[in-house]
Amino acid sequence: MDNRQQIHLENLSLRYRGIETSALKHISVDAEFGHVIGIIGNHHAGKTSLCRALAGIVPTIISGDVTGTIQVGSLSPNLDWQKYNQQTGVVLQNPAGQLSGLADTVADEIAFDLINQGVPADQIKRRVFNVADQLGLGDQLNQSPGTLSGGQKQRLAIATAIVTDPSIFPLVKWIHLDVSISSVG
């Protein structure tokens, strides 16, 4: 299988700093792009940790010790996190907690990663409007993110993740998403 078209985890282990027990132990998985894959497990089984590792959040943003291989296509978070990050989108359990907190409007929040990636302004505007329309946020583009309802914040978090057109898109506890958006994508 062409490594540019797959997710590859090999002997992945993760332990958060200050915690003795490993969150993940020796996980190995290969999956092709273009599939929806569900990960089911007991409470505290490591599902969220796996999504954080896949997104490159651990150890880059959240302190932890990661061993093994994480590769999405030809990219690995420990070799070039910035490029890797451009290929991953993630929505965590608390969507409001992953918003930048720096944006004055919903449109600015959706555009945040695109601006940081140096995408031209005309493309940013088009992509922001398209994603907002897809997720039913078109009428909220000029609102402050802080004024949104919980469901709207979920959709905003999804918008910020998919506007960059990521290769992979881990969703943590996606079962709680609004029914109206559970089929978007």
UniProtKB/TrEMBL annotation:
The keyword Translocase applies. GO terms for molecular function: ATP binding; ATP hydrolysis activity; ATPase-coupled transmembrane transporter activity. This is Cobalt transport protein CbiQ. The keyword Translocase applies. Keywords: ATP-binding, Cell membrane, Membrane, Nucleotide-binding, Plasmid, Translocase, Transport. It holds the Pfam family ABC_tran. InterPro entries: ABC_transporter-like_ATP-bd, ABC_transpr_CbiO/EcfA_su, ECF_ABC_transporter_ATP-bd, P-loop_NTPase. It comes from the Bacteria. CDD domains: ABC_cobalt_CbiO_domain1 (cd03225). Belongs to the ABC transporter superfamily. GO terms for cellular component: ATP-binding cassette (ABC) transporter complex. Residues 24-169 form the ABC transporter domain. It comes from Ligilactobacillus salivarius (strain UCC118).
